Amino acid sequence: MKKLIFIMLLAMLPVAAMSAPAGKDDSSKTVVFTVSPKMHCNNCENKIKNNIRYEKGVSRIATDLKKQTVTVTYDSEKTNTDNLSKAFKKIGYTAKECKADVPAEKNKTAK
Fold first, then answer.
1. pTM tops 0.90, yes or no
2. How large is the average pLDDT for residues 45-68?
């Protein structure tokens, strides 16, 4: 009986492997924001993380207090950077998109 179950499981394995998604989803994107007012403490980071994570399509949020950045990974089919910026505004922050590899100070635009 055990052999029969084992053989049936082996026969189903290739079918299960083909139905699983292969690799990373193409609709997943990552954006880096700088926020104003600046994050000063863990409470600021937690406020951002705990509120932005509920935005539709957001799958991951990482904050960096030292660099003053918020990195958001999201599903581009469910949301976009404009919607994310609006979500920041709801909690009292102005978010500006910046490049991930450039320090926050260099991403500021002159007024």
1. no
2. 94
pLDDT band at 99 (very low <50, low <70, confident <90, very high): confident
In the chain, the number of structural domains is 1
The residue segments making up the domain with residue 38 are: 28-105
Cα-based distances in Å from 62 to 8, 16, 53, 70:
44, 33, 10, 6
Crossing angle for the helix pair 81-90 and 42-52, to the nearest 10 degrees:
130
**DSSP per-residue letters across 56-85:** TTEEEEEEETTTTEEEEEEETTT--HHHHH
> Does the residue 15 lie in any domain?
no
Q: What is the dihedral of CA 64, 99, 38, 73, to 10 degrees?
A: -60
Q: Which CATH number covers residue 54?
A: 3.30.70.100
- Mean pLDDT confidence for 21-41: 83
Average pLDDT over residues 45-57: 94
Give the max Cα distance, the chain.
76
Who's near 111: CB < 8 A, 6+ residues apart?
none
Residue 13 located in a structural domain? no
